[in-house]
Amino acid sequence: MRINQQRLIREFISLVSIDSPSFGERRMGDVLKDRLYSLGFAVSEDEAGARIGGDCGNIHGFLPGMLDAEPLLFCAHMDTVEPSKGKQAVIGEDGVIRSSGDTVLGADDCAGIAAVLEALRAIREQEIPHRPIEVLFTVAEEPYCKGIEQFDFSRIRAKEAYVLDLAGPVGAAAYQAPTILSFTVAIRGRSAHAGFAPQNGIHAIAAAADAIGKLRMGRIDDETTLNIGVIEGGLAANIVPDRCIVKGEIRSYSHEKALSGAELVKKQFEDAARAVGASADFSNRVGCEAYRTPPEHPVVKRFERACEKQGLSAVLQKTFGGSDQNRLAKHGITGIVIANAMNACHSREEYTTIDELCRIAGLTLSLMSAAD
User: Fold this and answer.
1) Averaged pLDDT, 7-14
2) What is the DSSP letter of 59?
């Protein structure tokens, strides 16, 4: 079983050149549908884009297998973070691939998509026996997995999945990930002239500051964090602010701890607002729900065998980031998130390498052709 390095790199560079921001994945989706059709897949696109304000839906494909084995799902996302417009991949003499410097590279997650496509091409070209293969290319993964949230999981046949969306050396895999809960608090006070009649106002920002000051920030315990990331409010320096918006998030390997943390945040803001005669409206959204895949599960053991076959060291780890696997797990699909040749993600310093792209494509091919 061989990977075509030149074809793989050409595909990666081609995918990177496509503008595909969250909620704007139309061009990428059309390209990937064409690729899957040409590889013999039954392909469909859902209505996720219309539901979340985007222009493209999730792309699902199924390819019958030659091996008497259960299907496997391979998942990667189509969107990239900003800045992303006009991305260009630049190959250095050292084999490192970077952006031109003014955008992200987009290896997150074009490296995963390119690996899946190259593995499928190798299977077709070399007539490699393979198990039934499902692919799911999702939209709007970066903003808390909004795209896959809209997917109809009754269409998925596989019970096990590999999500290509983890930074670090190929061979690493995350078996556990947290709940990520984002929240917004809107505090309403009363405006007044800050110079002539401050006593007539109710200072919304002061109420917010009081609540924030009483909350423990950062690492709450060994599996939970809390952060306030945005504070907005006020109209002018001489007006008592009547409104303040606060946004933050909670992450925890325990879903119950994340929910109880949100209740604590809500109570703190409500109490602080009530103390000065203001009100506080609290809302939250669970973008990702915590899961843990047992290291002894077949989906993990198969990955370890595939790594050994490719001469890679399998390294199991936890991640404190979310991915589409959080949503897959919620719908009964057991999986892990595997490192797919992307580094320094979400920055202009993002990079991959030719060698790592070849490794993840070869590893993906080994998983697709695994008989057990």
Assistant:
1) 97
2) E
